[in-house]
Amino acid sequence: MSHTFHVTHNQTKQLVTVKCLNGLYEEIANVFGISDFKLQSYVEQFSDWVDFDTLQEAPTTGKLKVIIKDVEQFEHMEQENSFSSTISESDTVELNEELPSTSSSEDTRSWPMIYKVPKLPPHIFSEIRSVEEGVTAHIGGKLRRRIVAIIFADMIKYTLYPMPNQYREVCQSLIAEYPILRDRFSNTGCYFTTWLKMLRTKYKDWRRQLTNNSYREVMKQKYGHVKSSKCVSGNEDCSKKRKTNENMTQPDDFGTKMLIDQLQKEMSKREPCEDTIRDRLKRTYEFRRNFGGSAKDLLEVYHPLKSSKWILEEMEQVSGINMKKLHADEFKKIKAKIKWEGTQVNDAILEMKNSWILFLPAVFKEKMSSFFVFDENVHWPYPLVTVSASSTLVHIDGTEIIVEGDLITAFATLIAAYWVFDVVIPPQCCKTMAFVCGYILNLTGVKIPLPVLRIINSL
Fold it and tell me: What average pLDDT does the structure give for the chain?
């Protein structure tokens, strides 16, 4: 006979089913990735939560709540360490100005000279060994949460607010002890970024539970900061990063103007010479990078950039990156993560070569319409691919760019347009762009969010 419980931990609610009550604690630990906790059951008769210490006292079904013992101990310790006084309130006005209004409720143990991660339980160690031996492909999210919970339970004995170097020391110790846990990718040389971010998130979530905590308030005032969020308006000029010096909107000298005229004349021929176009684009490169107008103005002057071929070559000159990497097998590994949703796209488009790229943003929970649309009405101010059964185009700033290739070439042109025309990447596209630019193309200065790193580690 199986037993099903409605279990609550912080803001997370899960249905947990066990065949035998003896496995209840272990199953809850696996589901939430926690350790060292107790359970409370909800008693309808009294409309309140009640502790139970043994499985004999546990109900066979109903609502359960997880209580982390560290939190309970911390709150009890805070009450014991808080200031108490027998002086009447009228006599304490002057004393309150001299004495601190709070006491540090943090554990008095100092941080060790050399931190060593706690020994992992045998069942977790066996899962790590299975990854090393190739039985499983990668470290799953559930296993990661359980490891973080064990490390957190050890760290909390020393500090409630770890310093950045302490976070790094813990993660370095973890990777040194279990090298298989290192991130598979890093463009910063740090191969424990996922563990670092998960530990920080664990601490933040745990501290958020502490209400009316005087020590926490003191630390927030000491180290807290206000984040300034900048949102990009849909009506904003997508080329706002460009320099706005009006004197730069025209050729700076007669020689540059002559080169541009030659470029435009060559493009008007029935069979333009590629070597001539390449030479003129190369010689006007510096002026083009300082062009003060919009992307539309730039395309009106430099006609070759209305073709994907020359945009991709310009991208290589701007960043040193060959966009042909998007055709490599490494990029196509992500294809296995894609869930096909044919209802959004007609069958003629799905039959096109490399049509799977249309669903790439969905892997990162971003909208397909931020990258690809299937009609002619383009209202997106950023680079966008319009796909139909007969043609594929890239639009930027109201100007069409002809794509010479398949859908991956169109996607590469879209990516390149952000660099060639110096366009600000909107928040709606940041995860997909971080994956492609930071991981596949390895462009410098691209920060990869934690959800994207997790997907990379699972490839």
Answer: 77
**Which residue bears the tokens 């690809």?**
372
- 448-458 b/e with 16+ CB inside 10 Å = b? beeebbbbbbe
Strand order in the sheet with 3-9: 12-18, 3-9, 62-68, 37-43, 48-52
More confident residue, 229 or 258: 258
List the domain boundaries for the chain: 3-69, 104-222, 307-458
- Nearest in space to 295 (alpha carbons), one of 430, 437, 428, 420: 420
Sort strands 62-68 and 3-9 into parallel, antiparallel or unpaired: parallel
Summarize pLDDT for 105-126 with one digit per residue, the tens: 444 478 888 888 998 888 888 8
Q: Supply the DSSP symbol for 439.
A: I
Q: For the domain bounded by 3-69, which CATH number is listed? A: 3.10.20.90
Rounded CA gap, 382 and 385, in Å? 10
DSSP letter string over 106-152?
S-SPPPPSS--PPPPPHHHHHHHHHHHTTSSSS--HHHHHHHHHHHH
Which of 324, 317, 361 lies closest to 339, judged by CA?
Answer: 361
pTM to 2 decimal places: 0.56
Alpha helices per DSSP H over 213-336: 214-223, 254-267, 274-283, 285-289, 295-301, 308-319, 329-332
User: Distance of CA 152 to CAs 157, 212, 284, 398, Å?
Assistant: 9, 22, 56, 52
Q: Which residue has the tokens 């590994």?
A: 333
Asked if 337 and 455 count as a contact pair (C-beta separation under 8 A), the reply is yes
pLDDT at 214: 63
